[in-house]
Amino acid sequence: MNTPELRPTFHVRLEYPCDVAVERIRAGLVAREDLHGRWRGKGRWAEIYVPERTRKLWSPRLSLRVDDAGDASELFGRFEPNPEVWTFFMFVYFGVAFLVVFGGTLGYVQWASGEPAWGLWAVWIGVPLIGLLHLVSAVGQRLGREQMRDLHILVFEVLEEMGR
Length: 164
Known about the structure:
Blueprint: E1 9-14, H1 18-31, E2 39-42, E3 45-49, E4 61-69, E5 72-80, H2 83-112, H3 121-143, H4 145-162
Antiparallel strand pairs: 1-5, 2-3, 3-4, 4-5
């Protein structure tokens, strides 16, 4: 069973120098009619989106980057949610983490002072909330799994065409 990641990634070694690989990948993306308006890129970076008619809140997008690897290059791909979703998720995540740290510190000081340690409730509430956020992330990835698979296949089709 695959363990869910917050932003799943993959790496592909390419047998071309970086600049040649970027040009060929870009040409492959431009040549595909099913990708018109569904990708954008600049330099060594590109993003591919799910078609707008099938896009949902949990729909992924695929960020691609080509890096130097000596005489060859490496394609780095990362599946990400929309920036608005990711920003909200991280805002809540860091907010809960701050609550846990602050509550834990306050509770410890209260306990060490001989006072009732009501601040520790933040820890008992916050830790399960962080677990819930990871569960929500896993559910979103499961809902978008087919779209992630489609984007992954699409990239490998472009790479296969590139090799010809």
